[in-house]
């Protein structure tokens, strides 16, 4: 029985290797196609400048809200073509007061922005639905309270969506870690984000024109969202849920790779664990809600996306858990054999199966290093010896945390299904 699980794990690893190679090929192709950039100081005028409502949901964000509002107000976009709505959502701190302090400054007198103190429910999705009712813009742009968009971020988002406004219902940019040098954890998170932004997002867009709305640094057509009925109130990952809703309607979410924003990442293991557990549970719930689309008449892109998520979050995770269990069991049994030679290993070392597993593991590790270093090399300032060393270490430490977080998230879902109660509370990511 153990050997059957081992064979399934090996086959699964091979399938994941194929997916990595395909995505990497798409990412490399995208990188070479976009190596030449125009001068950011002399950007051509857009075909038109649609009005944009910029929304910043903020829940107890007094530590970071002023930096975010300043960055948003300094965007390179005509001031009469945007409005900024800062939502102080059920705040118990000075978030609203900090925004009003900026409103009183002379340099922002001609800017169209206001702070709205909200006491409703629904979390971030609830905020976005409230903004949908009062927004005067043709598009909504969303920036989290810890985000700092670069000056041309909105320009590039609008530029991308205007390439095909009928099909492109939304456009998303790249997010970068603003505090990645803080400690070991933030450096590992930075490596994960660089890889996601530079390889996975670009590879899927290049090959399949599949994009995913992130939590921040994106714009979306207001009317399209209204026709969908808005965001899913209370959703733990409202960005993933709205992405699937758009794809079900045959709309595309375009990658605007030059629209960049810096965001603050968790600096403690506790903050990281709670943030990623919320993300994992939210993604699992969205996957289960959409799993049936594998067998209906929805567009092929959503089928591929559902399959991709199922493989990543369920199948591949399970294969890694099984292979890790067998490996650790063999390691422990090898130690026991020193005292009790009659004990047999689950998979004897030196057998063809154990050799095949080792070859698979080495291929996986090599592809991981290749993918990470290509991603780092494509991001100015990231290809350093220090980052390479962190890449090696993070594979055996930080990368394994995803398995733990995923298992806890699955357990939470099972527990709530059995008890009929939702015991999971929305966790507010700690700021520093």
If strands are numbered along the chain, what order do they take across the biggest sheet? 3-2-1-4-7-6-8-5
- Helix-strand makeup class: alpha/beta
Low-confidence stretches: none
- Helical fraction equals 40-55%
Largest sheet: 8 strands, mixed
Mean pLDDT: 89
Question: N-to-C terminal Cα separation, in Å?
Answer: 50 Å
Rg, Å, rounded: 23 Å
Order of helices and strands: HEHEHEHEEHEHEHHEHHHHH
Described by the principal axes of the CA atoms, the overall outline is globular
Number of strands: 8
**Tally of individual helices:** 13
Strand content: 5-15%
What does this structure look like?
This protein is an alpha/beta fold and 432 residues long. It is 54% helix and 12% strand. The chain contains 13 helices and eight strands. It has helices at 2-33, 65-73, 95-103, 123-134, 153-162, 184-208, 222-228, 238-248, 269-290, 300-337, 352-377, 385-396, 398-419, and strands at 52-58, 82-89, 113-118, 139-142, 148-149, 168-177, 218-221, 252-263. Strands 3-2-1-4-7-6-8-5 form an eight-stranded mixed beta sheet, with helices on both faces. Helix 2 links the parallel strand 1 and strand 2. It is globular, with a radius of gyration of 23 Å. The model has no long low-confidence stretch (mean pLDDT 89).
Tell me the layout of helices and strands.
Blueprint: H1 2-33, E1 52-58, H2 65-73, E2 82-89, H3 95-103, E3 113-118, H4 123-134, E4 139-142, E5 148-149, H5 153-162, E6 168-177, H6 184-208, E7 218-221, H7 222-228, H8 238-248, E8 252-263, H9 269-290, H10 300-337, H11 352-377, H12 385-396, H13 398-419
Helix pairs in contact: 1-6, 1-10, 1-11, 2-3, 6-11, 6-12, 8-9, 9-10, 9-13, 11-12
